[in-house]
C-alpha cells in the first residue's frame, strides 16, 4: 500500500480512455507482483475436469469443489463415463456443492453433448462451449484461458465488483463488463488479469467491507475509502493466505508451492 493514501473517500473524476488504460494496467502490474502465485483455484488436470469443476463451483466455494472432485473424477474420468452415470449416484457425489439436482442435470446433459457432438472431447472455442448445458461465457472463458491457453476474461462476482470499483466500467451486465475491460488490456493479459482481480477480491477488496488500508493498489483506486482505511484495522480483514497468522502459508505460496502440495502439507486453504 502507498505510504500516504488519503484518509477520505475519493471523488471519481472524468478520465480519458488512454488515462484509464494506463491506470488499469498499472493496477494489474501491481496485483501481479502482489499475487505471483495467482492461478485457477479449482483443481484440474485436463479441460474436461476444469469444465466440470467450474459448473460445480456455482453458488459454492472453490475449496468445497476441490474437496468433492477427486472422488467424482475417479468415478467419472471423462465425458463418456459421466454421460452414462446414474443420476442419483451423481447427485450423491456432488451434494456437498449445493444445488446438486440442477447441477447433476447440467453435467449429464453437457457430457452427452460432448460425446454426441464433439467425439468425447471438450471443444476449444467459445461458440461451441457456450452451447453446452450449464456453460455461459464465464465458464467458457475459464476453460479456454486455463485449459487451452486461449485468452479470456472471467467475469464472476468478484471481477464485476472490482471492475466497477476500479472505474474500468460502470455496467452491471457481465458481458458488457467483459468487453469494457477487454478494451483496456492486451488480449495476452486477459487470463492472468482475471486471476489477479479475483484473488484480490477474495482476499482484500471484499463486498461488504473492503480492506482499503491494506490494499496494494489504493493509490490508483477511485473507490478508496469505501472500506476500512486504518492500516491495522484493515489488516485484520484480510483473508486466505494474507490473513493474520498465516505468514508461513503465504511464504510457501510465494516460494512457488502448489495448492496440492500445500494441502498435502496440512495447510488449510479456506478463508
Task: Give a quick summary of the entry.
The chain is mostly helical and 271 residues long.
The value of Rg in angstroms is 20 Å
Structural class: mainly alpha
Compressed to H and E, one letter per element, the order equals HHHHHHHHHHHHHH
- How many helices in DSSP terms? 14
Helix content: 40-55%
Q: What is the CA–CA distance across the termini?
A: 21 Å
So what's the overall shape? Answer: globular
Report mean pLDDT, rounded to a whole number: 95
Search tags:
globular; disordered N terminus; DNA repair; mainly alpha; HhH-GPD_domain; 52% helix; hydrolase; 271 residues
Note down, in words, how this protein is organized.
Its EC number is 4.2.99.18. This protein is mostly helical and 271 residues long. It contains 14 helices and no strands. The longest helix has 19 residues, at 100-118. It is globular. The chain starts with 16 loop residues before the first helix and ends in a 7-residue tail after the last helix.
Topology:
Elements: H1 17-34, H2 47-56, H3 62-75, H4 79-83, H5 87-94, H6 100-118, H7 126-129, H8 137-147, H9 157-165, H10 174-182, H11 190-203, H12 231-235, H13 247-254, H14 259-264
